[in-house]
Specification:
Largest sheet: none
Number of helices: 1
Shape: rod-shaped
Distance between the termini: 89 Å
Strand content: under 5%
Helix content: over 70%
Mean pLDDT: 93
Length: 62
C-alpha cells in the first residue's frame, strides 16, 4: 500500500511540513522582534517620565 503512492505525493507532503516549520519559525522571530520593540519603547517612555520628574523637582527647588 505504501509503495502504490506516486513519489511526488511524498514530495508534496514533505514540502507542506517544511512550509509549516518555516511559518512557525517566522512567527516566532516576529514575536521576538515585537517584544524587543515594545521593551525599547517602554524604556524611552520611562526615560521621559524620569526627565519630567527631575524637571518638576528642579522647578520646585528654585
Amino acid at each position: 500500500m505504501l509503495f502504490n503512492i506516486p513519489w511526488w505525493v511524498y514530495l508534496v507532503i514533505v514540502f507542506i511540513i517544511f512550509s509549516g516549520y518555516m511559518s512557525f519559525r517566522a512567527m516566532r522571530a516576529e514575536k521576538i522582534l515585537e517584544q524587543q520593540y515594545i521593551e525599547r519603547e517602554g524604556q524611552v517612555y520611562m526615560e521621559r517620565i524620569r526627565q519630567e520628574k527631575m524637571r518638576k523637582e528642579h522647578v520646585r527647588s528654585d
